[in-house]
Every structure is written in C-alpha cells, then in structure tokens.
Design goal:
The protein is mostly helical. The chain is 80% helix and 0% strand. It is built from two helices and no strands. Helix 1 runs antiparallel to helix 2. The longest helix is centred in the last third of the chain and has 33 residues. The two termini are 25 Å apart.
Length: 74
Amino acid sequence: MAKPDNRADNVEHLQQSIQHTMQNLHEAEDYLNEFSSEISGKEREQIEAKNERRQESIKGFREEIKDEAAHSEE
C-alpha cells in the first residue's frame, strides 16, 4: 500500500534547501574572490558552472514553493 501524500512540511524543506544552496553559492564566490590568483582557469570555470547550476536550483525551489502554496489553497 502506498503512503499518503503528506505535503505539510514541503515548504519548510524547500526553504531549507534554498538556504543551504545559497550558503554554498556564497562560500564558492568567497573562495573565488580570495583564491582566484591561485587556482587554475579550469577550476574557476568548474566553480562558476556549479554556481550557475545552484542559481537554477534556487529558481526551481522557489517555483516549487509557489506550487505548494497553490496546492494548499485548493
């Protein structure tokens, strides 16, 4: 038997995911600012690409929160 869909804490989990992802993004930016002269161009590109993916994830989490808000109004 399948578990019932319990969405009660989805928004809280999504908000925690946003905070965690933003923290990682800022730490990576700080790392780049501090060590940019010491790292290779390839490493810099990898970090920048990962930060772009993090920004996309944050957008996705925010869209999911909107969906959850709409679902809770039904």
